[in-house]
Amino acid sequence: MRFLLFSPAAKWAMLAVFSALLTVPPPLYAGTAPPSQSQIRDRQPIDLSSDRYRRLFAELRDRYAFTPRQLAEIFSGVTIRKLAIDLMEKPGEAKPYYQYRQMFITPAMIQAGRRKMREQKATLNRVERELGVERQFIVAIWGIETGFGQNTGNLNVFQVLNTLFDAYPRRSNFFRQELIEFLLLCRENSIDPHTVKGSYAGAFGQTQFMPSSFRKYALSFDGDRRPDVFHSTPDILASIANYLKHAGWRFRAPLYADIGGDLHSPSLIKAYYKGQKGRVGWRQVVAAQRRNIPRPA
Question: Which carries the bigger pLDDT value, residue 85 or residue 90?
Fold first, then answer.
């Protein structure tokens, strides 16, 4: 077995494959206590008169200029989607890259990825030139996130975000902000918030962006000035690249270095068994392994 030290750019690429929710610390719940898990029923109405919703509506009115009539129309009849809570309670297990590789990098995936690279050659040429991210990584993330758009989720994103804000106290504050970001992006892009489908955590589109990520990184690359991560392949590819660019991606920088077949430090061994959460600095690796290892980009 050979051990590899991944550069920050490579780590960001792999983290983009997994849910961003795994990397966000769970904020404490603030406000009126939500219903206990045992009391929650699927499709039960959400109490829009609670303190937390009154504060949410006040912020949407005062800070973001939503009118009372708009809010009444948007939130009318919103109910709990218990499946979202159930799935949030069963987070994915952190595994080292070599185990994830077996799950995702299959012959069929590789064949499909090569086909997409041929089909989108002109767009990928432009993306590489303007955003500075190599095509193979963009297409790989597209394939792993949604199977090139085949699996983008079928849950109502507005309902999911309300559910996790109202009835999932460990992440309530996080999902409150994502709900606000979602309403803003829907208004900015003339999208009916009730029509968007996505994952149990509220990620949507072929990029599986959370609402805040959409507003930060989604690009229009097809000339219509409106980012569309649902249907526009140029927008999808450019948005993935833009995400990586803002995460510190460097074009053609080394992604990893071979540090040998044995680990010579307890801290390196500990980091290895932590999987994707393992972190060791470059200087520490060089000192422990006594090898000429390039400095990560």
Answer: 85
